[in-house]
Amino acid sequence: MASTAVAGSPAPARGLSFEATWGIILLLPYAAVFLLFVVYPIAYGAWLGTGIEGYRRLLDDPIYWRTLRNTLVFLLIGVNLKMLIALCLSSFFVLPYLWVRIVGVLFILPWAVPHIPSILSIRWFLNSEWGMLNNLLWQGFGMFGPTWLSDPALAFGCVIAVHVWKYLPFWTLILVAGRMAISRDLYEAAIIDGAGACQTFRFVTFPQIRNLFVTSTLLTTIWSLGDFNSVYLLTGGGPAERTNTLATLGIRYAFFEADVSAGVATMISGLPLLLPLVVFLIRRLNERAA
């Protein structure tokens, strides 16, 4: 006797469809790459960071404490200066003129060009013996230029300036996009109310882009903590290891001195600064999405 389906009974179990099966098969290579090049290095680095010897070396090394101070100064000055200039320049690049668009294309070049040629060109430009800047000072004013990359204070100032110069265009474009999303009706209402330029910025522009500005500042702080290229390509951490940040010092320990444990410990020592920023950023994004 043929069986009949009973109403309300569960449907018979079915296997994966043909498309789902092939989807899983095609994703397997990506999963293997993720495990091999992401999960394994992170887990291995965390395991290396559990050793006490690496942290003991950091605490006994005066270069580490100087580097930690350099990193804090680098973040406080570099990030805030970069975002402040980006906020100011964003008001210029929203102007509806053709020549402003042309200047914008030139302005974005430092960010678009790869790190090695752009930062090395600045290094040659600042060379104290045959660099273009000191030659211009000598030929134009008859004065000897300073040793830009040999004096520790000047060299670290140059590192911060190069970091700002390199990443400023990107964050300026982000804020320009935020400004362009503001309704023109708000500006027209402000003009009718007799608001000046400063009042318009205070009560119209900045309240509209405040969340974007804060989120961008958090992101660039997180990314700047790992900025290796701006320091290494310009000064290499010198002179006398006086311009290192945590990113370059960790590489120096791990690869140049073959002390991987100290290198990993250097990177992990930045987590007390990094993790609160990440948590705060994720909370802000979740609040905006809710």
Describe the structure.
- The chain is an all-alpha fold and 290 residues long.
- The protein has 2 domains: 30 residues, no CATH class; 235 residues, MetI-like fold, CATH 1.10.3720.10.
- The protein is 75% helix and 0% strand.
- The protein has 14 helices and no strands.
- Helix 2 packs across helix 13, helix 8 packs across helix 10 and helix 10 crosses helix 14.
- The class by helix and strand makeup works out as mainly alpha
What is the CATH architecture assignment of the largest domain? Answer: Orthogonal Bundle
Which ranges are low-confidence, i.e. pLDDT below 50, for 5 or more consecutive residues? none
Q: Helical amount among residues, as a percent range?
A: over 70%
Order of helices and strands: HHHHHHHHHHHHHH
CATH class of the largest domain: Mainly Alpha
